[in-house]
Amino acid sequence: MLEDSFGRRFHYLRLSITEACNFRCQYCLPDGYDGPPNSAFLNINEIDTLLTAFAQMGTSKVRITGGEPSLRRDFSDIIALAANTSGIERVVATTHGARLASEAKGWADAGLQQVNVSIDSLDPNQFALITGQNKLTQILKGLEVAVAAGIDVKVNTVMLQDFSQNRLARFLDWLKTTPITLRFIELMETGAHHNFFSSQHMSGLPLREKLIAEGWTLLKRRQDAGPAQEFSHPDYAGNIGLIMPYSKDFCETCNRLRIAANGKLHLCLFSEQGLDLRHYLSSGDVEGVKQFVTESLGSKHISHYLQQGSTGATQHLAMLGG
Ligand code: SAM
What we know:
Order of helices and strands: EHEHEHEHHEHEHHEEEEEEHH
Strand content: 15-25%
CATH class of the domain at 12-161 and 250-319: Alpha Beta
Bound molecules: S-adenosylmethionine
Number of strands: 12
C-alpha cells in the first residue's frame, strides 16, 4: 500500500483523461477550452499500464475525470478497462452530465458505479449564467436515467457569493424527494482566477452550522471516501456533503493521488508541478511506474497551503479534474 511520510495511505486515484471541456464555467474555463486535442492525452494502452501499476500498489478506487471525460470517444472503453483491472473495486466519474441521458446505460454496462455531476444551480437561467450552457433540463433528465441504470449519483455545487441567495432553499426542496447526495464545494483559488476567487469565495462553515441547527447529522466517513463531510436528515430523501478545503486539517484525511491527462503525477491538486511518468506509460513499464510513484510520494507535503494563497501549477481545475 502506498504511504507517505505522514502516514497517509493512498488507495484512491483520480485520473484525468482530457483537459478539454465544452462548458464555460465562470470559475474554471470562462472563455472556453483552447488547449491540445484529445489525441495529445494518454491513450488507452498508457492508461492500462497506469491502472495495472496503481492497482498493484493498492489502489482500489478510480475516479475518471477531466476536463470533460465524456468528450473522449473511448470513455466507455476506459471505464471497462478500469472495471476489469484486477484490484480496482470501484470505478466512478465526474461529469457535467450533458451526455448522461443518452450514455448512462452504456457506462453502467461498462462498469461505472457512481457519477458526480456538477449542477451549480437548479434555476435554469442561473445555471446557464454560471456554466455558459443552457442544459439544466437535459442534465436533470440524465440524473434520472443514471439512477435507473443503477449508478449512484452525487451532485457537486460550487458555492459562489453572487449566487448564494435563493439557491439553498431550492436545493433543499429538491432533496426532500430526490435520493442523491448534494455536495457543496468551497470555491478554490487557482492560478488563472485570483480576482474571481477574492470576490466569490465563501466559507462552508456557516452552512455547516445551519444544517446542524436544522437537524442534519454527520455520517461516518467511508475509508475510500473523498473529502466531503456528509450529513443526513430523517425528513429528506437526499444527503448533503460539504467540501471545505480551507478548513483546518482538511489534508489530514488525504487518500488520493492524481494523474493529469498528459501523464504527469500530481501529489496534490495544488502541487508546484506534475512529475512526468509518461515514458514509463508509453513503454508499458508497470514496474517503472511503481518505482517512480513510490519514490515520488516521499516529497508529498503535509498540506496544500491554499490558505496561504499558494495555488501551485494549477491554473484551473480542468487541467486535473476537481
Ligand atoms: N467536467 C466535469 C464536471 O463538470 O464535473 C469534471 C471536471 S470539473 C473540473 C470537476 C469539478 O471541479 C466540478 O464539480 C467543478 O464544479 C469543480 N471545480 C472546478 N473549478 C473549481 C474551483 N475553482 N473550486 C472548486 N471547485 C471547482
